Amino acid sequence: MKKVCAYLSIVMVLTLGLSTTSFAQNNKAKATESETTVSATETASAEAEQAAPVQAETQSFHQALKTKFIEGGVPWMTPILICMILGFALVIERVLYLNLATTNVEKLLKKIEDNVVAGNYEAAKDVCRTTRGPVASIFFQGLDRIDSGLEDVEKSITSYGGVQMARLESNMSWIGLFIGLAPSLGFLGTVVGMVQAFDDIEKAGDISPTVVAGGMKVALLTTVFGLITALILQVCYNYLLSKIESLVTTMEDSSITFMDILVKNRK
């Protein structure tokens, strides 16, 4: 009987030990799972935070420009946008006009000289009439007055040359206006925005960085867009000026050559 009781006691002790070990292992496993879940959540949060700037960086240029335009204030950004559109329209018009005004002067003078040498002034006029550009128009005016004498021809060339120069420079003053107007509107929007920022500071009763930085950023955006518009139009303006100067120089040189041809072959 004593042996049976002893065996029962040993079995109970072993059973309790195994139960305690199993319970401890289960608690340890649950703790490990909890730590894994927390770690996974933190990793996902960190990846989301890292993905947010990447997603912001992948924003298209058009969307970023539109966002900045709205942040700058539509009432102040719209006049600057109008200046840019009108300025570019005038630049494109001048580029097309000046390119069409470009003529192969050497070829034109050769044809005129051949007809003048042959005494066929009407054919020389037809050559000028069918050739586009201010140089051909000037030559036509000179040939049209060939019967009045070389002095009248020279006066006609000089007078009509001034008219053609004015046509070449047409709309350039408007482009210059938009170059000066765009940054001025930007500065005006900046000043008004700064006044509004100080009003917000006064209402808040605190010069917090958030209030100051937000108002200043909105105010300075108008200046940025105004300066960008003016810089682009200024580059186009200088290109057009160089093109006009080249055409004017060609007109003057070719007019001298044209008069030399008439003087040599005047009968």
What does this structure look like?
The protein is mainly α. The protein has two domains: 58 residues; 202 residues, no CATH class. Helix content is 89%, strand content 0%. The protein has nine helices and no strands. It is rod-shaped, with a radius of gyration of 42 Å.
Characteristic key phrases:
267 residues; mainly alpha; 2 domains; 89% helix; disordered N terminus
Short description:
The chain has helices spanning 2-57, 61-71, 74-101, 105-117, 121-129, 134-144, 150-168, 172-204, 209-265. It is mostly helical and 267 residues long.
SSE diagram, text form:
Layout: H1 2-57, H2 61-71, H3 74-101, H4 105-117, H5 121-129, H6 134-144, H7 150-168, H8 172-204, H9 209-265
Helix pairs in contact: 3-8, 3-9, 4-5, 4-9, 5-6, 6-7, 6-9, 7-9, 8-9
Question: How would you describe the oligomerization state of the chains in this entry?
Answer: single chain
Poorly predicted regions: 1-38, 51-57
Give the helix level as a range of percent. Answer: over 70%
| DSSP strand content | under 5%
Number of folding domains? 2
Query: Over all CA atoms, what is the radius of gyration?
Result: 42 Å
Shape descriptor reads rod-shaped
What is the H/E order? HHHHHHHHH
